[in-house]
Structures are given as C-alpha cells and as structure tokens.
C-alpha cells in the first residue's frame, strides 16, 4: 500500500512538471551519454544539462551522477526512469485518442433510418464509413419519419435517412439519392412486365401500402400518384414497414408499391415491375451539429451519393 501511494505521488508530481525536461531525462537515462543524447535531440550538451538540473532542482534530489569517464543513474533516477517511462506511454496513448476524437474517428454514432434503405444503401454506406472510421461504434434504429424529428431534437439520434425532409428549422435535410418505385406482385399474379401498361389497370386490386395521409411527404406522394391514375387504392391492410409488406404480398394478400431498394429482398414468391415514379431519400441531422463523427458520416454519404452506381 505504501509503495502504491508513493508511485501515485510521483505520477501526480510528474503531471505538474515540464514534460520536455522529463523526456530529455529519459532519453539521457537510456543513453547515459550527454554528447550522443544532445546530438539525437538536436540541442547542445549545455542545454541538455540545464534541463536535467532544472528537473533535479524541482524534485529536490539527484537523478544522475556524472564523472569524467561515465554517467550513471542514482537510485532515484532508476525509479523515475521506470515510472516516467510507463506514465508517458499512457499519456501518449491518451493524446493519440484525443486526436482521434477530435478527428471524429472514434466515438458513438446513433443513426436512424427508414426500412427501405437497409437492403442496399445502408450496407454500402456503413461499409465505406467503417473502413475510414473503424473505431466508431454504430447504433442503428429503424424508425419512421414521423418520429425522427423528435428523436433528433432530443439527442436520442444523431442523424438518419428518411424519405421526406425535416420540417423543424433546427434540423437540416440533404437529398442523397433518388430511386424508382416498383410495383410488387405475388409471383403467381397474372400481370407480367411484358403486359403491364400502368397502375390505372390495377384499380380493382387490393393494395398493401403505408399511410397515405397528409402528415408525411412520402405518403402524400403516393396518394397523389394514385390520384393521377384516377382512383384511390383499395386498402385492407396498412403498414409502414416494407419488410412486412413484402411478406404479406408474397402470401397473396394484395399488391404494393415500394422503393426499388426492396427488389433485392430475399423474400421468395415476389415479382417487381419498375414504375415511372421516383422517391428521394434525405439525410437529416441537427443544423450546424459540431460533432466530427457526424461530419465524417455526412461526408461519406456525400461521396456515396456522387457515385454513379448510387441508389
């Protein structure tokens, strides 16, 4: 116990000392040769001597004994060489970690997303991001756009990807990609890509769709799309989760319209027909967020958005 207290006192005192003095002493303690050490450090022997003397005066004890033929460490010098070597290694590690934090290369990122970006966009983005910032811990939450703004404003999320821009002025949204919509059909459905003309021919079908109310931009866009074909779709089932919709369509409970990202779904028993309509995905975060981690993710999303194969 007494030894631990002594070492703690040494460490506390070292923290208040000039680190240059300590580093110069450790280099000299390793070489035990003033001329060679001064030459490696790029200073004069007299300057090196002054650094060591200042350290000894501050400590109130001799660290080195010097004669005409040799330099050797005192017992106090041997003790401090071991302790300061360990202490500075820890300090250097802390400094390296602080630089990583400042650069946004470590930390935690809480990312929300709509389900449709999970099959293709999100894996591509996070693969590239993890390659650049492998020490950032990612937490993903699938959440609808209706809940996203409150979660961002209350710092439960850092940023996310949704199919409508934020309305709150404290948030900012940037379009990252646009993709086609597709008609989703059970594999046994009589409509085929070669015979399909438009959604106008499907007015008698039962549709499985998300809410088409006024509260969401994506729902409004779907409603306006159907209005353009002159009808309101029959809906016996409503769901905001694309994976659920795919399973219900595969079970023969109806047809649907979804973003093309879902065409890569592993759910069996489905067919996808491209439609002449598109949906935009937005990256939304707090306006002027100073987080370097958020900035790195946004930069990676911008790089992916500029890729020719995006979407």
TrEMBL record:
Transmembrane segments: none
HTH lysR-type domain mapped to chain residues: 17-74
Record key words, sorted: DNA-binding, Transcription, Transcription regulation
Keyword Chaperone listed: no
Pfam families registered for this protein in UniProt: HTH_1, LysR_substrate
Superkingdom, natural source: Bacteria
GO MF entries: DNA binding; DNA-binding transcription factor activity
Gene Ontology cellular component list: protein-DNA complex
Similarity comment text for this entry: Belongs to the LysR transcriptional regulatory family.
Protein known as: LysR family transcriptional regulator
């Amino acid at each position: 116990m007494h030894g631990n207290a002594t070492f703690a006192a040494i460490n506390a005192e070292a923290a208040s000392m000039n680190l240059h003095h300590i580093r110069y002493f450790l280099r000299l303690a390793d070489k035990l040769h003033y001329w060679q050490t001064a030459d490696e450090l790029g200073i004069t022997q007299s300057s090196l001597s002054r650094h060591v003397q200042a350290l000894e005066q501050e400590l109130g004890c001799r660290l080195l004994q010097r004669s005409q033929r040799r330099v050797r460490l005192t017992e106090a010098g041997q003790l401090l060489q071991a302790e300061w070597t360990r202490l500075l290694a820890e300090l250097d590690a802390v400094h390296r970690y602080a630089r990583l934090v400042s650069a946004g290369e470590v930390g935690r990122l809480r990312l929300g997303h709509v389900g449709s970006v999970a099959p293709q966009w999100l894996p591509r983005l996070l693969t590239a991001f993890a390659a650049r910032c492998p020490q950032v811990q990612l937490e993903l939450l699938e959440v609808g756009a209706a809940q996203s703004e409150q979660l961002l404003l209350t710092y439960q999320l850092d940023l996310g990807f949704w199919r409508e821009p934020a309305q709150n002025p404290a948030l900012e949204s940037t379009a990252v990609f646009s993709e086609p919509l597709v008609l989703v059909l059970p594999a046994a459905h009589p409509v085929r890509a070669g015979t399909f003309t438009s959604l106008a021919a499907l007015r008698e079908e039962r549709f499985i769709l998300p809410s088409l109310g006024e509260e969401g931009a994506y729902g409004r866009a779907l409603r306006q799309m159907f209005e353009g074909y002159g009808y309101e779709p029959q809906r016996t089932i409503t769901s905001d989760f694309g994976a659920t919709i795919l399973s219900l369509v595969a079970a023969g409970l109806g047809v649907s319209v979804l973003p093309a990202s879902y065409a890569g779904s592993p759910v069996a028993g489905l067919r996808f027909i491209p439609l002449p309509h598109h949906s935009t995905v937005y990256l939304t975060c707090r306006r002027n967020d100073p987080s370097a981690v958020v900035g790195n993710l946004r930069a990676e999303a911008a790089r992916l958005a500029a890729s020719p194969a995006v979407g």
